[in-house]
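CO-FOLDING WORKSHEET

Operator: S.A.
Ligand of interest: calcium ion
Run index: 194
Mode: holo prediction, single chain
Checklist:
[x] sequence pasted
[x] SMILES validated
[ ] output reviewed
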Amino acid sequence: MSIWTLHSAAAGITAERDGYKERDRRMRQINKQSTLGFSQIEVAMSTLIVGLMVVTALNTAGAAMRSQVGNGDRGRGMVFGSALMAEILEQAFEDPNQTPVFGVESGEATSPVTRVNFDDVDDYHGWSSVPQDKAGNVSVSGTGLTTVVTVALADPNALGSATPPSPSSVVKKVNVTVQQGASVVCTLTAVVTK
Ligand SMILES: [Ca+2]
Ligand SMILES: [Ca+2]
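OUTPUT RECEIVED:
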């Protein structure tokens, strides 16, 4: 083997080794870029997942809080609605002292408006006020609530009807509704007869 041949072989080995080095360098660079890209994707996904978890937790907490507020309003509504209904049911079917009319009779209206002179069931028709007793004392615990009363002659054969086909003069249906703003928190219904 000549010196030239040995030199050429050595040069070939060197070139091949340099080629391997270059390939290794590129592979390391590609791996580094892949690792960097993967890390960025992981961070983005983690941020998204954490964000979704926070939103879900806030929604759940908000729903629980609204439910608690709703239950509290319903409880208060039942207390004031029941008290008002009980007061109405204690009254006479029609005015005991003067010629009965549907609604308040002469001299029963007061200013400021109270129920102090109401003495029959239909005197309460159209009543709408913050919770207060018959004398007009407003209940602090009823803040935010409104009590509304409707009274109407009812058809004993269609008591559930909002527009009774044959209303009787001896049957009255009383509705007491308690509202929180525009939302109804409870409704009580009673039927009274003469
Ligand atoms: Ca009346
Ligand atoms: Ca009356």
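REVIEW:
Residues 75 and 151 are 24 Å apart (CA to CA).
Residues 95, 100-101, 103-105, 120, 122-123 surround calcium ion (ligand 1) (CB under 6 Å).
[x] output reviewed
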